[in-house]
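Summary of Year 1 activities. Much of the first year was spent building the evaluation harness for sequence design. The harness presents a backbone, in tokenized form, and records the residue chosen at every position. We chose the following record to illustrate the format because it has been used consistently in internal testing since the harness was completed.
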């Protein structure tokens, strides 16, 4: 079985259907991008993986377990397999770089401090920041802070990495560095990675496969080469970053004149 699998998943908040019959799969070693306009259901998809919400129909499988059927302690154990790097997953400002990375190890394991020390330095080495161990978060550039957050996210050797907009707010060089790191860490750790992102160029350079979501439905998918060659209108709109196209800029609403009482 694949490391992560969505089987015909539908999810709604009340009457508001967010995901409809979504099926996708990610195997060990793969880096997969999920792209879609604002409100298309990308974060909802990540929350289903984290078990914060449950699908009303279909099932989500992580490493052979059906997430929707887990109880509290099952979920707690399962989440240890997940590494998460979120756009606003800020560092603890009052802790040094070292202590930020050590935090999940101290919280979640009973390892002796000497071993934690070695693990922290290994993770910092992996993101090229062993030399920044004693620095405080406010002394780091945005790109460095993101890399420390990445070291913290991999501290417990996750099976699956989830990235929510990992490139947002970074300058082009930091962006390329973080992209390369996502790929390298995935390959070195033997994980699977899901990257929710708007950054098409950066993603095409590092991912194996892309799913395009629109209004909760996967409207297109493919490898970077297939995507580049695709004439599919959604794919085209994303690649060319056009504001007009099949993805609406406006969320459906009552007619404008009626709203203004005209
Ligand atoms: N807790 C909630 N209760 C009700 N509706 C919600 C809730 N969270 C999200 N939604 C709705 O679900 C839809 C999908 O949201 P989601 O956050 O998954 O989109 P997204 O693709 O991640 O968007 P963005 O790129 O803007 O972050 C939106 O229309 C949003 O208003």
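For this record, the design step produced the sequence shown next.
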């Amino acid at each position: 079985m694949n490391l992560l699998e969505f089987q015909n998943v539908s999810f709604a908040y009340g009457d508001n259907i967010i995901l409809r019959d979504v099926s996708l799969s990610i195997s060990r070693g793969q880096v997969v991008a999920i792209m879609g306009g604002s409100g298309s259901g990308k974060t909802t998809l990540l929350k289903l993986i984290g078990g914060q919400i449950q699908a009303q129909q279909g099932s989500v499988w992580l490493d052979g377990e059906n997430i929707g059927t887990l109880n509290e302690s099952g979920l707690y154990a399962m989440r240890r397999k997940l590494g998460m790097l979120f756009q606003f997953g800020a560092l603890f400002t009052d802790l040094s770089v070292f202590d930020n990375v050590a935090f999940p190890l101290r919280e979640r394991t009973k390892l002796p401090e000497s071993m934690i020390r070695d693990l922290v330095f290994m993770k910092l080495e992996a993101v090229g920041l062993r030399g920044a161990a004693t620095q405080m978060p406010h002394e780091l550039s945005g790109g460095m802070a993101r890399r420390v957050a990445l070291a913290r996210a991999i501290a417990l050797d996750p099976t699956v990495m989830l990235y929510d907009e990992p490139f947002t707010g970074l300058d082009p060089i930091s962006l390329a560095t973080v992209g390369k790191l996502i790929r390298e860490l995935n390959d070195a750790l033997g994980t699977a990675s899901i990257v929710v992102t708007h950054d098409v160029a950066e993603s095409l350079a590092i991912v194996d496969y892309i799913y395009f979501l629109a209004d909760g439905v996967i409207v297109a998918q493919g490898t970077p080469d297939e995507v580049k060659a695709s004439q599919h209108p959604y794919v085209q709109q994303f690649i060319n970053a056009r504001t007009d196209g099949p993805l609406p800029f406006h969320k459906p609403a009552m007619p404008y004149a009626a709203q203004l009482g005209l």
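The longest helix spans residues 172-189. Quantitative recovery figures across the full test set are reported in Table 2.
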